[in-house]
Write a structure and sequence with these properties.
The protein is α/β, with parallel strands linked by helices. The protein is built from twelve helices and eight strands.
Length: 310
């Protein structure tokens, strides 16, 4: 072998080894990060402030603790307005956030006479467990509906979720038919598809780069999480969940969303076009429709709930 060909061979071998190591270590690292995202806990001062605001507005305020079937403790706030309309809304936050991320929506809904439940998702805020992007959270939402039905006996239970919370909400529909209607802003279609999109985001390639060059890294991450934690992340699939549900779904997506691109809502709608309505908003970024079009957002969400009441 000539010196030139020898150098090229060793260079190829070095690149292949680095790619293999990067794929394995990257997949394992991303798997751990995905299941353990950073999320700030709710401090005592934040809870006191929320309770004080509720008292000033004659709103009943409760700190709620829920033990799940698999032994995880979840925490939430429940608020009931003085002149309630008899309906309740569960508000579901995004990844690395906590219930305070949906608190503004809670105050808005209270003003419109809805009772609101603001849970911390698994491994977020003051809740325990691992983040599973709907694999286990779907049943948590079912148990939260049980809690509301048992303690409040509402006419209708609705839900509004954003990003991860929106995806978890849609997945809950396979086991929770009691929702009168739900609103999901910026959900992912499948966890695999959003993983592809995240790899392509820094390079502005869309999901293509994740589906090709980084596909092996995604596969390793999925395999690691399944072996290490017993979780099949292929099951995190809102687009699959809506197929078997008759609950009316309003999907909201900003056309400038680079975090979870708007084609994810198209994929979900394609699976269940009869029960799903999509509203796309120009100029809105990830979970940013309420800021980009506040009056229209308020009108559409409240109108969606009102149009699907018992």
């Amino acid at each position: 072998m000539s010196p030139r060909r020898s150098i090229l061979w060793y260079l190829f071998l070095a690149v292949a080894v680095l790619y293999l190591l990067g794929t394995v270590l990257g997949g394992i690292g991303l798997g751990e990060i995905a299941l353990h995202p950073a999320s700030p806990p709710i401090s005592q001062s934040e809870e006191r402030n929320a309770e004080a605001v509720a008292q000033r507005n004659s709103v009943e305020f409760r700190d709620v603790e829920l033990g799940t079937q698999d032994g995880v403790v979840l925490r939430a706030w429940f608020m009931h307005p003085q002149e309630a309309n008899g309906n309740a809304v569960i508000l579901l936050h995004g990844v690395s956030d906590n219930r305070l991320g949906m608190y503004g929506y809670g105050k808005w809904l209270l003003q419109n006479r809805y009772s609101v439940l603001l849970p911390d998702a698994r491994h977020h805020g003051n809740s325990g467990g691992l983040t599973t992007y709907g694999v286990r959270e779907a049943n948590d939402i079912h148990e939260w509906v049980d809690w509301i039905e048992k303690n409040e006996h509402p006419h209708c239970v609705y839900s509004l979720g954003e990003s991860m919370g929106a995806a978890e909400l849609l997945q809950s529909l396979t086991r929770e038919p009691r929702f009168c209607a739900v609103v999901a802003e910026s959900p992912f279609a499948t966890f695999r598809e959003v993983a592809y999109a995240r790899f392509g985001r820094p390079f502005h390639t869309g999901p293509w780069l994740g589906r090709t060059f980084f596909r092996a890294t995604v596969d390793v991450g999925f395999l690691y999480v399944r072996i290490r934690y017993g979780l099949n992340m292929e099951d995190a699939s809102p687009e699959q969940a809506v197929m078997s549900s008759k609950v009316p779904v309003l999907l909201i997506h900003g056309l400038d969303d680079r975090n979870i691109p708007p084609y994810h809502s198209d994929l979900i709608e394609a699976r269940s076009p009869k029960s799903v309505t999509v509203w796309k908003v120009p100029g809105a970024v990830h979970t940013g429709v309420a800021k980009a079009a506040p009056e229209e957002f308020n009108r559409r969400v409240l109108g969606w709930f009102a149009a699907h009441s018992t």
